[in-house]
Amino acid sequence: MGLTLAQKIIKEHLVCGEMIPGKEIGLRIDQTLTQDATGTMAYLQFEAMNIDRVKTELSVAYIDHNTLQNGFENADDHRFIQSVAQKRGIRFSRPGNGICHQVHLERFGIPGKTLLGSDSHTPTGGGIGMLAMGAGGLDVAVAMGGGTYYIPMPTIVKVELKGKLSPWVAAKDIILEVLRIMSVKGGVGKIIEYCGDGVKTLSVPERATITNMGAELGATTSIFPSDEITKNFLAAQNRADAYTPLSADDDAVYDETIVIELDKLAPLAAMPHMPDNVKSVEEIGKIDIDQVCIGSCTNSSLFDMLKVAAILKGKTVAPNVSLSIAPGSKQVLTMLAENGALADMIAAGARILESACGPCIGMGQSPNSKGVSLRTFNRNFEGRSGTADAGVYLVSPEVAAASAINGYLTDPRTLGEMPEIIMPEKFLINDNMVLMPDSCEEASSRTVLYGPNIKSVPLGRALENTIEAKAVLKVGDNITTDHIMPAGAKILPYRSNVPYLSKFCFGVCDTEFPDRCKKEGGGIIIGGANYGQGSSREHAALVPLYLGVRAVITKSFARMHKANLINSGIIPLTFKNPDDYEKISQSDILMLKNISDAVKNENTAVLLNKTTGEEFILELELSERARNILLAGGMLNYTANN
Ligand code: MIC
Ligand code: SF4
Fold first, then answer.
1. Looking at ligand 1, which atom is closest to the CA of residue 215?
2. Are 415 and 311 in contact (CB under 8 A)?
3. Is the previous residue joined to 101 through a cis bond, with omega within 30 degrees of 0?
4. How far apart are CA 474 and CA 541, in angstroms?
5. Which of 43, 160, 412, 414 could form a Cys-Cys staple with 168, CB 3.0–4.6 A?
């Protein structure tokens, strides 16, 4: 039986386990990336492991999230990450060099390699045929130290792309269509593999838009074959030797198939507040807008920017709209500047931002109250923009630029003929903003520089046999890590200060949660389906750990968050009968009897609701390794014990 492309790469990197869907497998990781919002924690954990140098083929530390330096904290974190990177054999991409995923695709990604990143959009690398996955910082720190990365073996979904996109319809519309079909929980436990004759009509940046936003499906990763188009992209980046042709076997067997006829797609938008709340732009109609933001790791390539510049050329942004544009990397920004496209954007009234995440993570450009913001980004969760009552629509660069000119949501097909974009044959190569690490000799005298905002990582405690605690919070379906641990300009600088961060935990749902938790000495959280979807941030587990949360009981979990809970020593449990969710109210006293015995040996545990007297069965879906980590009270204790 033939293999799919993802299965081939997994097979080549398999350290342990069998490739049976749902069973735990261990993978060798070739490359890692970190960004600064998760990186400080990841490097604190790496430093705690006492390993001299990283053991990967390549590790890169990017500074792209916390670039708004409103106080010393972010600059201190940058300095800390730089000092660790230089000492430990990691390349350091300086602030201004660009968004990690865009730069990694341009300068470092290699088809067929595994990439683990402390950011959920690491699957962007699937655009050139990498097996690229997001994970919590601790898992990335372990991989940097040469450790194995563990995941449940995913099932493989084939997305067959047929035909060619019509004018004004973009790669973003393909992934929005996949989201419409599969939903934000439809990809959990799955790898999405793209194939079909439509693949060869898509450039690498277009493929990367699709694999990037596969994160919003909850998928483990997404991947495209590596073909002539990949080869030309790598050659244009002066990296022809990185190319290897890769594709699925003709007789590969997939677990599911979705067919998308590209010529039938129209411009789409994800409406507030979920990336799968998708409708066609035509159907939504000409709603008034206040803001347009173009950029982020989803849509900030040179190709995207040239399209935007061509639409804006000779026009002026509508008076009711504020337009911001953040090109994805220094390479993109420089090339735009050199060919005049940047001048067209500026002349039209665009507010040019540095090459960084910026508004995507609420680092500035929050919309006005009740504002309507069109963004080429990948997430439109409530409050993520920094304005609690704003409504964010996710759209393609074409829709964004056309709407910025008109002042209302615009189907770009109404603009007439689509401008032709001619891509340069060679990208401009200048890696002067990537610092090479010290040699082993130099490294021995380099000190790691800790700022005063860097506080120690909270530690769990070994699991006791009975947990009796209050249901300190009950939430519904699709709770994101942005609900659990919000980001944004006011909070992000404290990513290395868990005690301070804890004041904002669950702030979007219930501002009293942190105080309640402290008063009760912790407790148990009750959640709905797909709990913890979204980002890889382990802070969404570390902060609840700090607040004394011992277990989370839900209808189902998102993959990365479940792994982060286990790493933090918080037990993830699911209702055997999802209807039992209704039988627990916030503030009920709950009791998990014989829980350490259950974690040791059983697939179920019993929960007694002491307030109502009812008992329910909960499921424990855990690998042997995860059981041992939980018993030890988290990964750091487990590693120290072993
Ligand atoms: C995001 O898009 O939410 C982030 C910020 O990039 C996160 C990582 C983080 O929280 O630092 C992600 O997607 O993993
Ligand atoms: Fe940065 Fe936004 Fe991409 Fe996250 S999704 S890496 S915040 S640009």
1. 13
2. yes
3. no
4. 16
5. 412
615 three-state secondary structure: strand
- Burial class, 288, CB count within 10 angstroms (exposed 0-12 / middle 13-18 / buried 19+): exposed
Under the banding of pLDDT at 50, 70 and 90, the label for residue 381 is very high
pLDDT at 51: 93
Name the DSSP letter for residue 329: B
Which protein residue has the closest C-alpha to ligand 2 atom 7? 361
- In order of 21, 152, 157, 179, 258, the CA distances from 255 in angstroms are 10, 15, 6, 18, 10
Distance CA 122, CA 130 (A): 10
Residue closest by Cα to atom 9 of ligand 1: 537
pLDDT at res. 89: 98
Tokens at residue 414, please?
A: 């109404």
What is the predicted pLDDT for the residue at 68? 96
Cα 594 off chain centre by: 36
Backbone angles phi, psi at 508, to 5 degrees: -70, -30
pLDDT of residue 461: 92
- The answer to whether 602 and 620 have CB atoms below 8 angstroms apart is yes
Q: Rounded mean pLDDT of 214-218?
A: 98
Is pLDDT above 90 for 642? no
Mean pLDDT over 8-36 rounds to 98
Active-site choice (64, 276, 304, 580): 64
| Cβ proximity of 499 and 455 under 8 Å | yes
Q: Is the pLDDT of residue 641 over 90?
A: no
pLDDT for 86: 98
**Whats the size of the chain, residue-wise?**
642
Its pTM stands at: 0.98
Backbone phi, psi, residue 525, to 5°: -105, 140
Give the C-alpha distances (Å, rounded to integers) separating 251 from 4, 12, 197, 410: 9, 19, 16, 43
The whole-number average pLDDT for the span 209-228 is: 98
Catalytic residue among 207, 537, 539, 561: 537
User: From atom 1 of ligand 1, which residue's Cα is the shortest distance away?
Assistant: 535
Question: Is 537 a residue of the active site?
Answer: yes
Provide the pLDDT for residue 1: 85
Closest CA to 375 of 491, 284, 478, 272: 272
- Cβ atoms of residues 479 and 532 within 8 Å: yes
Among the atoms of ligand 2, which is closest to the Cα of residue 296?
A: 8
Q: What is the pLDDT of residue 457?
A: 87
Ligand 1 centroid to Cα of residue 487, in Å, is 8
CA distance 547 to 524: 11
